[in-house]
Design brief:
By secondary structure, the protein is an alpha/beta fold. The protein has nine helices and 14 strands.
């Protein structure tokens, strides 16, 4: 297989649990670029907390953010593609307003949230951009939403099912996310590949979450992390090591740098 591009998930794949890129992972990615393999980040994160890692790695390729709801230029950071989600906001905020869950609205102009928690404080530290609004989201006045993140604290939710007729819902162990119908990392990757003149069959994707399933199942080679859930592993062609044991570097070194066995 002639690999021309690799799309890498961030949390649970590229990064450690403490949000660090290990020296070995960085070196492996550098080795790919030396072999003229285009390296991209494909993440559920918003741009502001993707770009710092993009810079650390020395990348200038587009960034697929918010599960594909936005794509940003790798040099200027400008959004070159956005896909807002359209749903009944009044109903969403009514259903979640009195609930102890936290709600995050990822908008083109920043983050709106019901309350600040440790996760958002960490994002502020990483991206150096605080939330644009904190409080009652029914009064936030945001124009568009690219992704809604509802943190219920546990898997499954009767609320998430209420939006499946309006948008695409991604269930997580701690809640669910809502994006526009047809939006995914893979749909955004396809638009990037077209601009680069690269075929899906010449592409490797790697990730660990339910938002990675489409890109793992449709790329030339999809690689699941050892820490991925069974459903994610089932969608992949290969399974590598745990992200805390540098499973990303294991795969790159064994299959793309020291061997071209794919």
């Amino acid at each position: 297989m002639n690999v021309k591009a690799m799309f890498i998930d961030m949390d649970g794949t590229l990064l450690t649990a403490s949000n660090k890129i290990t020296r070995r992972n960085a070196k492996a990615i550098s080795a790919l670029m030396e072999r003229n393999i285009n390296v991209f980040l494909a993440t559920g994160r918003q741009f502001e907390i993707t770009q710092p890692y993009h810079r650390i790695l020395g990348l200038n390729t587009p960034m697929v953010c918010l599960n594909g709801a936005s794509v940003h230029d790798g040099v200027t950071g400008d959004a070159v593609q956005t896909k807002p989600v359209k749903l009944d906001r009044e109903r969403l905020h009514h259903l979640t307003g009195d609930d102890p869950c936290n709600v995050l609205v990822h908008a083109p102009d920043g983050l709106y949230c019901k309350r600040v928690n440790a996760e958002i404080e960490e994002w502020t530290r990483e991206g150096r951009v605080p939330p644009r609004y904190v409080g009652d989201l029914s009064k936030a006045g945001y124009k568009d939403a690219l992704k809604y993140s509802i943190r219920t604290g546990g898997p499954g939710s009767s609320v998430s099912m209420l939006f499946e007729d309006e948008a695409d819902v991604i269930d997580w162990d701690d809640g669910f996310e809502i994006v526009a119908r047809g939006v995914s990392k893979w749909s955004a990757i396809q638009s990037v590949l077209e601009k680069y003149g690269i075929a899906p069959e010449e592409t490797v994707t790697i990730g660990d979450g339910p938002n990675d399933i489409q890109m793992l199942s449709h790329a030339g080679i999809g690689v699941a992390m050892g820490n991925a859930a069974p459903a994610v592993k089932a969608s992949a062609d290969l399974v590598t090591g745990h992200h805390e044991q540098e499973g990303l570097a294991d795969f790159i070194e064994n299959y793309l740098v020291n061997s071209y066995a794919l």
